[in-house]
Amino acid sequence: MIWDRIVTAILQLNIGYLDIIDLIIVSYVIYKLIMLIRGTRAEQLVKGLFILLLAMIVSDKIGLKTLNWILEKVMTVGLIAIPIVFQPELRRALEQLGRGKIFQRPFRSWDYQKFDYFLEELMKAVPALVKKRIGALIVIEQETGLNDWVETGIVIDGLISAELLINIFFPRSPLHDGAVIIRGNQVVAAGCYLPFTDDPLLDKELGARHRAGIGITEQSDAVALIISDETGAVSLAHGGVLTQYLEGEELRGKLTELCVTERSEGLNLNFWPWRNSK
After folding, report:
1. What is the domain count for the chain?
2. pLDDT 10s digits, 189-218
3. Does 240 score more than 50 pLDDT?
4. Does the residue 104 lie in any domain?
5. Edge-to-edge strand list for the sheet holding 223-227
6. Which of 41, 110, 138, 189 is least surrounded, with the fewest CB atoms within 10 Å of its CB?
7. For 63, left (φ over 0), alpha (ψ -120 to 50), or beta?
8. Using an 8 Å Cβ cutoff, are 229 and 133 in contact?
9. Which domain holds residue 177?
10. Sign of the CA dihedral with 88 first, then 94, 96, and 98 last
11. Does residue 161 belong to any structural domain of this protein?
């Protein structure tokens, strides 16, 4: 029997109950660490380190000595830099541990199948905001998690609707000054503070909303939709690039291109596929 062979192999390895408990604890700790960085910029950095480690092993196996030497040196420097690179995540982990929140269930990620619903509600909200000259900054999360900035605002976790977005940005409402962060068809948080761009060549006439919208797209792959309260002009920022004066079908097409098309093209390096599942 296969089971008998497995038991025999375990006995031959002299694995005791304490060893099994030790493995379970270590596995659980690793799992919680993965859940901790999930939805943050650190996730992308871990993917990069994994690719470098894989390349180093492969180069060693096939005898590419120069490439292997370079990768070993890069990995050595990378390991030293990890505490610096992951400083925000380490701080957040200690804070959550102190508050007893480290064992809470993680969030659910973007559901691509509901993109049409999200787009329709957004396209209903935009004309109303433009007509009333209500300024807005809406950030659409993509592969890079935005939890670092979600924590600066007020958690909403509500189903997106045109009415909800309009009420959030209505003048003199408590949350109208900050940004709204959307994950899938959920409004995750509102009143969020985003990093400003440092681009010295940016048009001086662009205000804080535009600078924050560009800034968040420089530090992530998010898409930022900005509505000017002075002119009512609609702009989209992605990858640090601002596209202004978008209307109607042009805006719809650009949103679809940035939020859907880019995900379906190119090499899929999603090592943690459960981010895209319910």
Report:
1. 2
2. 999 999 998 887 888 888 999 999 999 998
3. yes
4. no
5. 154-159, 186-192, 179-183, 136-140, 223-227, 234-238, 241-243
6. 41
7. left
8. yes
9. 112-276
10. negative
11. yes
